[in-house]
Amino acid sequence: AQDVPACGERDPHVLAGVLWKSQGGHWYLLAAGGPGTTSVEATGGISGSANGNLLTAKAEQGARAE
User: Fold this and answer.
1) Which has the closest alpha carbon to 29: 7, 52, 1, 62?
2) pLDDT tens-digit series, residues 1-25
3) What are the backbone angles phi and psi of residue 59, rounded to the nearest 5°?
4) Which residue from 1, 10, 41, 43 lies 20 to 30 Å from 49 (Cα-Cα)?
5) How far apart are CA 34 and CA 52, in angstroms?
6) CA–CA separation, 5 vs 13, rounded Å?
7) What are phi and psi of 46, to 5 degrees?
């Protein structure tokens, strides 16, 4: 998240994501939020959402999520 106080040292929420290529040659976004994350949503070049702190979404090589 950009420009939000929830990512500062006083309220350290964490979200990380990576593009991963399966052995079958398919690309995925793997994203995880820190404890207390209730949902994760990707927009931009990748779209997907999930309840909880984990998200897996189909992607294209080189795609960028927001």
Assistant:
1) 62
2) 555 555 556 666 678 999 999 999 9
3) -145, 170
4) 10
5) 10
6) 9
7) -135, 135
pLDDT tens readout for residues 31-61: 999 888 899 999 888 999 999 999 999 999 9
Interatomic CA distance for residues 14 and 55, integer angstroms: 14
From residue 5, alpha-carbon distances to 12, 30, 37, 59 in Å are 9, 24, 15, 29
Is the per-residue pLDDT at 28 higher than 60?
yes
Q: Which residue has the tokens 């949902």?
A: 39
Beta bridge partners of 30: 18, 56
Distances (CA, A) of 11 to 1, 24, 37: 13, 39, 12
